[in-house]
Amino acid sequence: MTKITNFVWNPVDDCIISEVDETGAVQAVYTNEPQQYGGVISQRRGTTTSTYHADALGSTRFLSDSSGNVSDTYLHDAWGNEIASTGTTVNPFKWVGKYGYYTDESTGLVYVRARMYQPTVARWVSVDPMFVAESAYHYGEGRAPSVIDPSGFLAAAEKSLQVDECGRFQWQVEWSLSPQEQTGVILQRVCTTHDVAECDGANCQLNAPVLPNCPNEAAPTACKNNCYWEAWGVENGTMTGVSGAPAASNLVDTFAWSGCMNPRNKGCTRGRIRKSGEGLFLSSNDLQLPVVKKFLRHLRFGKGGVPQACGLPSTCDPQPAGNVSTTAEEDKLAFIRWHYDSASRRTVFKLIDLVWDCCEEGCPICKSTGGVTRNERLIF
User: Fold this and answer.
1) DSSP for 178-247, written as a single string
2) From CA 366, how far away is CA 363, in angstroms rounded?
């Protein structure tokens, strides 16, 4: 008898939340992180709960039961072929399972939203809906050990990372454009959580322009939560600059923090910086659509003192106090709905999360280990 499994989908985060059979009986319930593509944390089948433990790529290395004991283990090669496993727990989220790569045990194929992936040949089984070329079947641009592609489209990849003492860092990520994505605009929404203090408890003054929609805009204290939009013009695969801004030489985006402004006690701090970027590409045809044009008209060069990407226009989100525009908010929401309601559009998401404490053992720890206790970065 053929067994039918229906999947209950979270359309906001684009991830599976449960499985039901043909009668509607629940077979499995998944708990995911509240972010795009989820980030599966655990599953419950009947009365059995299993917790996922993933490696840096997002592949499940082992499952643990409710008592914390390891019940199953998995090992895959770079392209997703299973090398070894132990345990009998039913689990479809194995190779890059954290981001919703769903392995079909009956076929060996991996479901990755827009299309299916075949690990045995390290290729997609169908062409990228936005990409017409032989390499449209290639997975992760041939860099499976460091690149994932949970949307089923093309990927961005880490170019370099430098983490120095007390949370100072520079992280470079390179955009990837398909052959028909050579001219248009890369648009990115950047969000930052910045919670840093010097060792004596004093606020860390931002070594960057302070956004006027900070809670305390009278003093240059850290803006703990803020988001803004930035844009890069692209012509024939090269960043061109907009409104007279200089051209960039490549498709590299940089996230960085260089420490407190006017630091005391040799710049020793404790804190956390979490910065994310949500990027999308607007083609020449997209730029002519009314919903896109209405939104982009609100981008202004240097508006709000927002840090610039290659000197290109940016705008605050939310807008500075006193300048909130109902029209701008409506246009932004209409643009976001247009982008995410289309199955053919794609989003590249990247995140870096650093936590450190240079204060517990005195300032010399800054120079020896950097005091960084957490260094996580993801691209999907």
Assistant:
1) -TT-SSEEEEEEEEEEEEEEETTSPBPBBSSPPPTTSTTTTTTB--SEEEEEEEEEEETTEE--STTPPP
2) 6
Q: What burial letters (b/e) apply to 308-318, b meaning 16+ CB within 10 Å?
A: ebbbbbbbbbe
CB atoms within 10 A of CB 160: 11
Query: Residues 270, 356: contact at Cβ < 8 Å?
Result: yes
293-309 confidence digits (pLDDT tens): 888 877 654 444 444 44
Taking only the tens place, the pLDDT of each residue in 101-110 is 999 988 889 9
Phi, psi for residue 7 in degrees, rounded to 5: -110, 130
All structural domains of the chain with their residue ranges? 5-124, 157-379
Residue 201 vs residues 197, 210, 215, 325, 367: alpha-carbon distances, Å: 6, 20, 19, 37, 20
Of the candidates 296, 341, 167, 314, the residue with the CA atom closest to the CA atom of residue 227: 314
CA distances from 144 to 81, 149, 192, 293 (A): 12, 9, 28, 37
Query: Are 196 and 179 within 8 A, CB to CB?
Result: no
Phi-psi region of 22 (alpha: psi -120 to 50; beta: other; left: phi over 0): alpha
